[in-house]
């Protein structure tokens, strides 16, 4: 099982331009769990760490041997589509209303 540090978590979220809410939605965790981990207040259960790693890797994040995250594919390879968190939340709200 790979480990994830608070610094790696924040760096990966920054690369993807994800809020804590969005990461939480991707891996079924609360915003508080993510915030407390990033701020060094607690270490989450290994199952929760694995869920965050899966969410990041599924979105193109690769962790190097040194541990620093990077985006595996440039934006041009993703079709140039990049939506901010507001657009993502709006789509989620619309789907829930249907």
TrEMBL record:
<dbReference type="InterPro" id="IPR001387">
    <property type="entry name" value="Cro/C1-type_HTH"/>
</dbReference>
<dbReference type="InterPro" id="IPR010982">
    <property type="entry name" value="Lambda_DNA-bd_dom_sf"/>
</dbReference>
<dbReference type="Pfam" id="PF01381">
    <property type="entry name" value="HTH_3"/>
</dbReference>
<feature type="domain" description="HTH cro/C1-type">
    <location>
        <begin position="9"/>
        <end position="63"/>
    </location>
</feature>
<protein>
    <submittedName>
        <fullName>Helix-turn-helix transcriptional regulator</fullName>
    </submittedName>
</protein>
<feature type="compositionally biased region" description="Basic residues">
    <location>
        <begin position="83"/>
        <end position="98"/>
    </location>
</feature>
<feature type="region of interest" description="Disordered">
    <location>
        <begin position="67"/>
        <end position="98"/>
    </location>
</feature>
